[in-house]
Design brief:
Elements lengths: L1 H12 L1 H39 L3 E5 L17 E2 L1 H7 L4 E7 L1 E2 L3 E3 L14 E5 L8 E6 L7 E5 H7 L6 E6 L2 E13 L7 E5 L1 H9 L4 E2 L1 E6 L5 H12 L5 E5 H48 L1 H9 L4 H40 L14 H27 L2 H6 L7 H27 L3 H38 L5 H12 L1 H39 L4 E5 L7 H8 L4 E15 L5 E9 L3 H4 L4 E4 L1 H4 L4 E5 H7 L6 E6 L4 E10 L11 E3 H7 L10 E6 L4 H11 L6 E5 H44 L1 H9 L4 H39 L10 H18 L1 H8 L3 H6 L3
Parallel strand pairs: 6-11, 8-10, 17-22, 19-21
Antiparallel strand pairs: 1-13, 1-14, 2-12, 3-13, 4-6, 5-9, 7-10, 8-11, 9-10, 15-23, 15-24, 16-17, 16-20, 16-23, 18-21, 20-21
Helix pairs in contact: 1-9, 2-7, 2-9, 2-10, 2-22, 7-10, 7-15, 7-22, 9-10, 12-13, 12-24, 13-14, 13-15, 13-24, 14-24, 15-22, 15-24, 22-26, 24-25, 24-26
Subcellular location: Cell membrane
Family: Belongs to the ABC-4 integral membrane protein family.
Keywords: Cell membrane, Membrane, Transmembrane, Transmembrane helix
């Protein structure tokens, strides 16, 4: 009890100093709990939607893919209408109804503006059925009654200002459907962002599926008291051919839909938790510094405790109890902040189109429990070394000296360990650059990153002596005596400076590494495009939508074109001459594709591969299956028949564009795949007549104005789009890393604040002999700047080493250009100086207000 009282007294006595450390714990715990609450809420939202929208039993074609799979030909797999009659006669069926649903659509308004989501959520066209009343209700108007009427969901109507009577055009592979809004249906559960339009059944069948006697699925409702499992068995018995159909109960359908979303949610969840872990790691340095300095400032107090009978364990325990109190306070606040962060993220997602309702806010008991355990554990872990150091202070040494004597032997051991770890990490990074396979190199890269990071942290105090002196020559010496004082203060305790700089180093190392990788990817892709792509224009959908025939026809009617090239992707099972079989994709393209994409051949002639019943293969595939030019391949097209094709060319896979692609002529594909099952173009290429590039570009854009889902890009557009996409991804990562950098800044603030308290008498003496308040504040600001620049220099150097090694692995995948983004690196370095200035504002202000006589009279 005495230990607890002492710890509580010390904790409250230094509550201002503890507050910054508590903020570090709070931020880290908030990020973890916010991530868990946000992703759990998303799971709850999708679970409710999938459960509410699924029928008691759903019957669909056996060949139908997952809910988010788009069919190659743009038309969903279908069931004959006769299946509905057989299902209705099954035992336990209250009613059954045929459903039509397609994700291969785009909905536009009268101004050709896309009504779909911008967050990647699907646009769905369907027929309105009784099963939809499970998750929706008609809020206004009425359901569609004919081919000129359509009903839209309320979220889409609100987002785009749609009203009853407005005209919408639905673009499908079978043609456009123009209709006026007859009704607006509202979801009774949260809709995460899908845009949904409904037609009457006959229109949906004819316009979405191209036939009047088919459905994509049948929704079956059970009679009262009939379990879903029993109903599924009865329906299966009535159908009599289980191999032709996929039957799912409500729970099974919901689980299947959830699985299709699960990988995306898991990636997002674990990525965000990874950044929270980085913030925790940075927070450890802050807490270590805080407790180390508090222990050093209480050395005489600890000596008195030892002198009156306190044991080492009691002293040790007293410091650890303070850490527990800090961890509990920071974690409790962090859990609350995490819930607020999750709500904020939900509002942010709502602003960009993904609707998540706070009614579905999900806080599992494990979330606050995990936050509390993590916060306390990390705080106690960080305080353990300072606590042990406090317990080792002998009573007489503590009473003689107000400071903790340095242990030169432990410093040498630490330096030796740090050098070994750093050299080992450097060797692993060097091995990464010499790896022949990406899988092998990635292991060396991971080892190198971990070892060099730990090595730089351990060796930080040794590096501080050299790096701070070097920085001082450039940054501090110009400020005269004040600059020299700042340099000496930064070097006074290299261990403290090293730990403070290491906190900033971690975040900036990741920033530099990702900047190098991102810039190298853009530079490599740009070089590859310049070398390989001969087409003037590329047309494709940003969301992966296939190019509908009417859009392809519009392209071909554009003036000024030398040629238009089709590019279709067909799934097939390939059997090599040796009998080995693999599932692969085959590209069906026009012969002009040879000019649009310059592929290097290692054997044969690519022109011959576009001949009848001929094909090309990539050299990796050829090597793996011992294929040579002239061999015959058996190609079983998923959507058609089996063909015997002669290998006429083997293309090099030392490329990043169409790597591993196998080519056939579109005529060969049409020979073996029925027209109604032929895949639509995934993308298309166009080349303008010489001297007419500018006019052709404008004409092509004009021809596709009615189809806003497709982008027309020349090579400059394509490169800029690639750069923007990577830039957006990096900005998201930088935003997540900002948390770690904020915690690092708090570490600098805390170090300076405690350092000012530690040097109270010294500051008083300097003020007494003539140091002005302005000079004192400048001294503290300069000390902060040089510490921040020290951490930035280590972090940026380390990150560039990681990024350079990572680029060598990317080179094995065709991204062979290394580009160091010097403007970004220099900007971050300069920004670090401003971070140092910002961190010193409060400590410098407090030091300047210090009463000179009281400071001189301070005892220790």
């Amino acid at each position: 009890m005495t230990v607890l009282k002492t710890s509580a007294r010390n904790f409250l006595a230094h509550k201002g100093r503890m507050a910054l450390s508590a903020v570090a714990v709070l931020l880290s715990v908030a990020f973890v709990c916010g991530t868990l609450v946000f992703t759990d809420t998303m799971n709850t939202t999708f679970d409710k939607l999938f459960a509410a929208s699924a029928a008691d039993v759903t019957v669909s074609p056996k060949a139908a893919g997952d809910a988010d799979d788009l069919p190659e030909n743009g038309r969903p797999e279908a069931l004959p209408a006769s299946v509905l009659d057989r299902i209705e006669k099954a035992d336990g069926v209250e009613h059954a109804e045929g459903g039509v649903s397609s994700l291969s659509v785009t909905v536009v308004d009268g101004d050709n503006k896309n009504m779909g989501s911008e967050t990647g959520a699907p646009t769905i066209a369907a027929n309105w059925t009784r099963n939809d009343l499970r998750s929706m209700e008609i809020a206004s108007g009425h359901a569609p009654r004919g081919p000129t009427e359509v009903m839209v969901d309320a979220d889409t109507a609100e987002k785009h200002g749609l009203e009853i009577g407005d005209e919408l055009r639905t673009v499908a592979v079978t043609g456009d459907i123009t209709a006026r809004i007859s009704g607006i249906a509202a979801f009774t559960v949260s809709n995460p962002g899908a845009a949904v339009v409904f037609f009457d059944t006959a229109t949906a069948q004819r316009k979405l599926l191209g036939a009047a006697d088919v459905f994509t699925h049948v929704s079956v409702a059970a009679e009262p008291g009939v379990a879903d499992t029993r109903l599924k068995n009865d329906v299966a018995a009535a159908l009599g051919d289980p191999g032709a159909y996929k039957l799912q109960t409500q729970d099974e359908a919901a689980a299947a839909n959830k699985d299709s979303m699960g990988s995306f949610l898991d990636v997002m969840k674990y990525a965000m938790l990874g950044f929270a872990g980085i913030a925790f790691l940075v927070g450890i340095f802050l807490i270590v510094n805080t407790f180390s300095m508090l222990v050093a400032q209480r050395t005489r107090e600890i000596g008195l405790m030892r002198a009156i009978g306190s044991s080492r364990k009691q002293v040790n325990r007293s410091v650890l109890v303070e850490a527990v109190l800090l961890g509990i306070v920071g974690s409790i606040l962090g859990v609350g902040a995490g819930i607020g962060l999750a709500v904020g993220l939900m509002k942010l997602m709502g602003a960009v189109g993904m609707e998540l309702s706070t009614k579905d806010l999900t806080i599992a008991w494990t979330t606050p429990a995990l936050g509390l355990v993590l916060g306390v554990f990390v705080t106690v872990l960080a305080a353990y070394v300072p606590a042990r150091r406090a317990g080792k202070v002998s009573p007489m040494a503590a009473l003689r000296d107000a400071g903790t004597p340095a242990d030169s032997r432990s410093g040498r051991v630490r330096a030796g360990i740090g050098l070994v770890l750093t050299l080992g990490g450097g060797a692993a990074l060097w091995a990464t650059t010499r790896a022949a396979k990406a899988s092998e190199g990635s292991l060396f890269l991971g080892l190198g990153v971990v070892l060099t990071l730990i090595g730089f942290v351990v060796i930080g105090p040794l590096l501080a002596g050299f790096v701070v002196r070097a920085l001082s020559v450039v940054v501090l010496r110009m400020f005269g005596p004040v600059g020299r004082l700042a340099e000496r203060n930064a070097l006074r305790n290299p261990r403290r400076t090293g730990a403070t700089g290491a906190a900033l180093m971690i975040g900036l190392a990741l920033v530099a590494c990702l900047s190098v990788v991102g810039s190298s990817m853009v530079a490599s892709a740009t070089e590859e495009l310049d070398r390989s792509v001969g087409a003037d224009f590329i047309v494709q959908s940003a969301t992966g939508q296939l190019i509908v025939p009417q859009a392809a026809q519009a392209m071909e009617s554009a003036p000024g074109m030398e040629h238009i090239t089709q590019y279709k992707v067909l799934s097939a099972k390939l059997t090599a001459p040796g009998g080995t079989t693999e599932d692969e994709e085959v590209v069906a393209a026009d012969p002009t594709y040879r000019d649009d994409l310059r592929r290097t051949t290692v054997a044969g002639d690519l022109a011959a591969a576009y001949g009848e019943d001929s094909m090309s293969v990539g050299d990796d595939f050829a090597t793996r299956h011992r294929i040579k030019v002239g061999d015959e391949m058996t190609v079983a097209f998923k959507a058609g028949e089996t063909a015997k094709l002669k290998v006429a060319a083997i293309t090099s896979d030392e490329t990043n564009v169409d790597k591993g692609a196998m080519y056939i002529h579109t005529g060969t594909a049409e020979k073996y795949v029925p027209a109604d099952r032929m895949p639509k173009n995934m993308l298309m290429f166009a080349t303008a007549r010489d001297g007419e590039e500018k006019e052709a570009y404008a004409a092509l854009k004009s021809s596709l104005a009615e189809y806003p889902q497709y982008k027309v890009q020349n090579q400059a557009d394509f490169k800029q789009d690639l750069k923007d996409q990577i830039g957006q991804l990096l900005n998201i990562v930088y935003g997540l890393l900002a948390l770690a950098i904020i915690v690092a800044v708090l570490g600098v603030v805390n170090t300076l604040a405690l350092s000012v308290v530690e040097r109270t008498r010294e500051i008083g003496l300097m003020r007494a002999i003539g140091l002005s308040r302005r000079q004192l504040r400048r001294m503290i600001r300069l000390e902060s700047v040089v510490i921040a620049l020290f951490g930035a220099l280590l972090g940026l150097g380390l990150g560039m080493g990681w990024g350079t090694s990572a680029q060598k692995l990317l080179a094995l995948e065709g991204l062979g250009v290394l580009e160091i983004p010097w403007p970004t690196i220099l900007s971050v370095f300069v920004a670090s100086a401003f971070v140092g200035l910002f961190a010193a504002l409060v400590p410098a202000f407090r030091a300047g207000r210090m009463n000179v006589l009281n400071a001189i009279a301070t005892d220790g």
